[in-house]
Amino acid sequence: MKSLFWRYLTMTLLLLLICFSLFGVCYIVQTYTYTLGQLQDMLDQDSENVSNLAELFFERRDNAILRSMFLAGVSAIVCENDEQVMICDANGLLLYYANTEGYSEGFTLQLSDDIMSRVKKNGVYAEVGTLGGVLSTVNYTSGRSVIKADGTLLGAVFVSASPGSARDMFEYYQRIFFIIGMVVLMVGMVISYIMARNMAKPLRMMTKATRAYALGDFSVRLPEDRTDEIGELAHSLNQMSASLNKLEELRSSFIANVSHELKTPMTTIAGFADGILDGTIPPEREREYLTIISHDTRRLSRLVVRMLEASRLSSGQIQLHPTIFDISEMIRLNILEFEGRIEEKNMTVDVFFEQDVMNVTADQDNITQVVYNLLDNACKYGAENGVLRVSAIHENTKTRITIANSGKEIPADMLPYIFDRFYKTDKSRGVDSNSTGLGLFIVKSILNMHGEEIHATSRDGVTTFTFTLPTAPEKQPGQTGRHS
Q: Choosing a second label site near 119 at 20 to 30 A (CA), which of 101, 140, 215, 317?
């Protein structure tokens, strides 16, 4: 399997090569066009210069000084750009020819009428060819008419250059492009390699980390020194590993708690049952021990029910069926269920409802579970001779329900985790020995399914749980609030 490093490097280099090739094609085409244009412009300029000198050739051939000036000027043009110069009369008869090797005069060659007519008509001439067979090879040629001051046509001049001139210039530009291109490609390859390695390196680290997570090692952390998507992914993986590590700790704690909770009552049940069966326990005390067996059996049943409820909530198997019901009446009935435990601790109950009837819209059975769990928690951790406070107040479209108890505070460092699954604040299994660490998790899960939140505070000796539910229209007119 090809690694991401090689895939990215190959893709980058291929893209670089394609872009460079396209640029090279465009550059070559433009350079070739520019070279030909430059050559044609040079020939046009030289033909104009020769045309100006040609007046000396036609009108002052007997003047040695002017003739020398003409020959010197033409020779400079010819030698500078490796060109050929031809001069003909008005009828196309070739009179003068010069190249880098020298010059000649007096020819019998005749330029075609077509060429001369074009020169006479336009004043200029341009072609890529042999100038009607006058030249032995295909050349670039620029022609121009020679006219006296009074408008009389004296003849024409033609300046030619071989394609080799343009080819030499074009090859020069190609060499420059090749050298620059090789440097750019080498730099691009090095940069692509570095970029591919830098991109693949954090991904390799993430792969290594995920393999460690798969083996149960959640202590591996990834560097978060990047601000791009890879940095965000590393941050997410670190958060995930921290959550998995926390969950693993909670799971281990839960297994230890459940093992302890199961072992003790099951040992008691088995021991007392065997004692009754083999006669070790006398018949007159059988009822006493059967009562203990019944109590521990119900305790095991509650544990299994809580675990099943947590499992169903986590898997999303519970469907909500919202109805309108009186939350104040529900709370009153739940408080009555805890009457025995409240009296056992001699707790004072302070209940305040803003109205006698406070209708909300929610799943009644699930909210009953929420209220029951919170009251159970308050009674379990409430102090002897303490206070249990319950209130419900309408706030715009929400009804805020608060359940608080006086007693030992929850440490600040534990407070953010009390709604986590399997979490127990009492690691010694003292006061918390009958807890499975699922009650508050179930409460939060049910409220989250309703789109609501629950918050907990613990200070000044009072632990308070507050949650909200959507307010529904009252079934009957509201009355003034009262304490009970």
A: 101
How far apart, in whole angstroms, are the C-alpha atoms of residue 81 and residue 165? 8
Residue 306: both structure tokens together: 């809580």
How does DSSP assign 99-152, residue by residue?
ETTEEEE----B--HHHHHHHHHHSEEEEEE-TTTTSSS-EEEEEEEEE-TTS-
Q: Taking the domain 229-315, which CATH number applies?
A: 1.10.287.130
DSSP conformational letter for 93:
B
Report how far Cα 217 is from the mean position of its chain's Cα atoms: 27
The reply to whether CATH 3.30.450.20 applies to domain 4-167 is yes
406: DSSP letter: E
Q: Where in the chain is the domain with CATH 3.30.450.20?
A: 4-167
DSSP 273-303: HHHHHHT-S-GGGHHHHHHHHHHHHHHHHHH
CA dist 227 and 225 (Å) reads: 7
Instruction: Classify residue 383 by its DSSP letter.
Output: P
Walk along the chain (484 residues) in steps of 10 and give the mean pLDDT of each run.
68 82 81 78 87 77 76 85 88 88 84 88 88 85 86 88 74 80 83 78 82 83 79 84 79 69 75 86 85 81 71 68 91 89 91 91 90 90 91 91 91 84 57 62 87 91 93 60 49
Can you give the pTM of this predicted structure?
Answer: 0.47
Burial zone of 205 (CB within 10 Å; 0-12 exposed, 13-18 middle, 19+ buried): middle
Amino acid present at 128: V
Count, residues in the chain: 484
> Do the Cβ atoms of 371 and 331 come closer than 8 Å?
yes
Here the tokens at position 458 are 């613990």
**Domain 323-483 part of CATH 3.30.70.3090:** no
pLDDT at 310: 65
